[in-house]
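Here's what a typical entry looks like (Peroxide stress protein YaaA):
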Amino acid sequence: MVLLLLPPSETKATGGDGAPLDLERLATPELTAVRTELTKTLADLAIDVPASRAALGLSATQDDEIARNAALTTSPTMAGLERYTGVLYDALDVRSLTRAQRARADRRLAVGSALFGLVRGTDAIPAYRLSAGSALPGLPPLRQLWRPVLGPVLAAVDELVVDLRSGAYAALAPVPGAVTVDVQSERPDGTRTVVSHANKAHKGRVARLLATTTAEPGDVVRLRALLRRAGLHVEHDGRAALTLVLRAG
């Protein structure tokens, strides 16, 4: 089995048809205490719009994000894999999966979250705004809150972990030995640059492939072989890092 850790998105889909948030029904109950504290703090903070803007790094044009936080416990929910939007999630495109593929994706995918710690595919969550780098009044940095509880949860995962989270979210709870994937572009002269603009899209395609395959890569070597069979140019440094190489032009 494989567990893919995805970064969240700042943007979230609106609405939903699920019942309001019930923290007790989310997967990974070890995280409930921190989830409860953060949810209450964020909702209470939303009463003070200027303070929310300062803590969350928002402008006056983004006050609708603060309104979402104010309604955290009353607004409708939807499955986590459908709540997050943006380039990576467009490439992942879970809504186009077959029923069997979606079942595998729900088992294999989890989203790193500043608010919930870890969101599994079927976790019913509302729209919200909180980033890994946010500093909430009266609370320690988020990494200090999450690492003691989320770290042991991830360390106990008894399967191959592929960590596609961005640096700020990986810092909330690093996973020793997890496979990472870097995306680089190779020019005709052989020189390479790190892909930034399309990085999320390529990681979304990797996530879709690994979430839906019937194969079960148990280590980084088998994972590399699986990606190569899919036509990707992947290099392995001999440890736990893979490099996806794109041919420029």
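The two ends are 35 Å apart (CA to CA).

More examples are in the samples folder.
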